[in-house]
Design brief:
Shape: globular
Number of helices: 8
Helix content: 55-70%
Number of strands: 0
Length: about 200
Amino acid sequence: MRPGWSSTRRSAVHSGNRSEVRRARDGDETSFAVVYREVHPMLLGYLHGLVGDDAEDVASETWHDIVRDVAGFRGDGQAFRGWAAAIARHRALDHIRRIKARPRTTPLDGRGTEPLTLDDAGGSALENLSTRRALDLIAGLPQDQAEAVLLRVVVGLNAPTAAKVLGKRPGAVRTAAHRGLKRLAERLDGAGGSEG
């Protein structure tokens, strides 16, 4: 599991402490680095569930917008994660629309990523194998369930904050997350637990 994904870990951004986020908002680069290190893995996991292998590119666009607008942000760590997730979701939806609108003129245009070198592939495969598999399983859920699970479990948002990101009621988000987690459990049980 990547840093920042543990639901038991209490950090400046997770604990609801306003001071680290406030200092980052006020231009403290060290505090912004702390916030980035804690929030980025969660956003990346969320984006992977939405756009797959293009998650890094969309995360880059997301952080561009966060840096540009952070001075106007008000709230604690939970609110910041929700705000960042909403920005990430908008960038992901924009990305999906661009891909659908872009004409494919040659077979090479269909390639989504550059091939990895052996050094990149070895380190990435060992480090991210279980995380990637989990995100792939989540991506196989219906979209409302996948987004609810990603926001609640991966990003660590509470139901009201996740509901704001998705434009739904908190109860609908809780239900979608519950159904998604139940469906994932059934898939894992049906595969004899070999999926997880």
